[in-house]
Task: structure prediction
Amino acid sequence: MAFARKQLFLLLLALTLGLTGPRNVLAFLKIVDDRGQEVTLKEPAQRIVSLYGALTETVAALGKCENIVGVTAHETYPPCVRDKLKVGTHLRPNLEIILSLKPDLVLQGSVSRGGLLAVKELEAHGLKVAVFNAYTVEAVFATIERVGILLSRREAARTLVARMRRKCQELEARVARVKKRPRVFYEVSYPALLAAGQKHIVNDLITRAGGQNVIQVPKKFVRVAPELIIKLAPEVYIVQLGPMNKNPLPVAQRPFLKVIPAVAAGRVYYVDEFLFARPGPRIIKALEEMVRLLHPELP
Result:
């Protein structure tokens, strides 16, 4: 009798696992992206088109660079993506090229009107698209973890996030000692002056590094005039160099800006756009550099 009961138990267990197994797999590969849309894959993503550099870096950091089949025009980092097929930009991806690659997942990093129009077109052709829009360090952590789920690299994502979080906490502990928070302006582009607003990842970096972003506007990019910068009187002026700001005139040579405190104190700094403006795995390195720029007095 005991043997029969044991056999019945094992049979019921097998049936239960058989019924719930596929459902669990689907749940494991299900996320909600930053549009609030549910994205579900039946299998871990094997052919990935990344339309945003930070997401390209995220996939590579999770050990899946070999699964990337297409990237945007300016991608050169990490080195494993240099020879990947270029598919246009995140706002104007080449649909024909992307379809020819037969991706099982497309990653998009923009919720702007142009970015979402591109997503709509891709989805109309039956492609799975996940959209992320991280503009805080915490949101970067959440993005890494969700991408990890879609790649079936959940544990690798958790390990990476835990390491990043520890370093972030160490930096913030150092900054907690400072008594003065300098006023900071972050230049996105010139001569058509664009600044980083509150929905740019740099805003969170400035705050965590013990500074104040002088642009208190709830947008990613904010158009500004030199007169406004003079009025805001930033004590630190940071210029990003990269595709959005290729050859800016040195700030000290701009007639209107010679009077701002940052220029007078020699606190104009030039940074790498690919490091500071990318909400991906290297964002803690950018935070470390921001702390150094804003508080050189710290040990």
